[in-house]
Amino acid sequence: MGDSSVIVHLIRHEKTKANLERKYIGWTDESIVYDKVNCIVPIHTDVVYGSDLKRCLETARLYFPNAVFHPFFELRELNFGDFEMKTYEDLKDDERYRQWIDVPQKVTPPNGEAFTAFQKRVLDCFQQIVEHPGIYVFVVHGGVIRLILSKFCEEKNFQEVVVQHRNIYTLFWDDIESLKGGEVCNRLSVAPIMVNENL
Asked: How far apart are CA 156 and CA 74, in angstroms?
């Protein structure tokens, strides 16, 4: 790693009950389900940045028990408004939902958050945190990771990006100025977080 390079690790929080039920969960503050599993995380850090919601804090404690967690409201998932805590089956006959699914960048969920507002708060916060060369670890939401990957990875479209639980998405820049200028990363890698059932 060079003196001016940047490495950013993005990790999605562990699953909540709503995730298991395939519900849209944005600002609902639900705890993770698997809070006692023995995870083998292939990176180490003393500092974790993330959303201020419980599922991110609890995941950070699970994966990095000795690290300091810095919570940010700005790193929350999209506010899904009237679609919050509902499934596809609940919403599939709602015309507003179908329009939103087709073009989420242009259609806002009723009583929810516009994509442009979500994008601005997340990317502004991300670039305020990652302002110096070094290694950064984030525990955030699927939508937040999709947004960052679609912004900083070549040929990544927000609607096409799939972000799984228990994976580490790592972006590399050769220098901090490239990131500050909004340039795509030099490299992206994905590594699994394993669960040791024998411990």
From this structure: 22
Q: What is the pLDDT of residue 199?
A: 46
CA 110 to chain centre: 23
Strand partners, 152: none
Helices 142-152/115-129 angle, 10° precision: 80
Entry pTM? 0.95
**What are the average pLDDT values for consecutive 10-residue runs of the chain, which has 199 residues?**
89 97 98 90 97 98 97 98 98 96 94 97 97 97 97 86 96 95 95 80
CB 25 within 8 A of CB 85: yes
98 Cβ neighbours under 8 A, 6+ residues apart: 92
Amino acid making up residue 9: H
- Phi, then psi, of 20 in degrees rounded to 5: -65, -30
* pLDDT at residue 1, as a whole number: 59
Measured over the CA atoms of residue 31, residue 32, residue 38 and residue 43, the dihedral's sign is negative
Contact 101, 130 (CB under 8 A): no
